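Technical note accompanying the year-one report. For the benefit of new consortium partners, we illustrate the data format agreed upon in the data management plan: each record pairs a sequence with a structure-token string. No post-processing was applied to the example shown here.
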Amino acid sequence: MTSPAHPGRMLFVNMPVTDLERSKAFFAKLGFGFNPLFTDETAACMPVGEHAFVMLLTREKFAEFSKLPLADPTTHAPTLYSFSVGSRDEVDAVGAAALAAGGTEADGAEDYGFMYSRSFFDLDGHGWQVMWMDPAAEQGPEAFAASAQDAEDPA
């Protein structure tokens, strides 16, 4: 690759689901939409960022892309899907919406000071984390902690 983070790069995460329409309804209740140009009866393109998408695929469609057997997300954790929101309150709101839409809680709130998150399992058992990160933490957690300490203890 000439530039691993070039501005036009897009990310597509392909995720097998048992019932595409049920999964679309679940994620719609969390506030996500779908690109109709790349959505049909076997796949739904869910934008999650400016250049990032989750492709919800029927298990049959997913099998066309992967020659390996599908893992059962209720018994194996092949990955954790995480997305950010704009505030701590929004973390709680999206977490509550996931539970109200039929998801199950994976973990309670986790508060690291610079980052706040909640985790849930979707209708197929895939693990998701919704998180907020303090914009000041972009310098890294150690630098953020040091700046927070300096703010509490000015010399």
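Partners are asked to follow this layout when depositing records. The CA atoms of residues 109 and 118 lie 5 Å apart.
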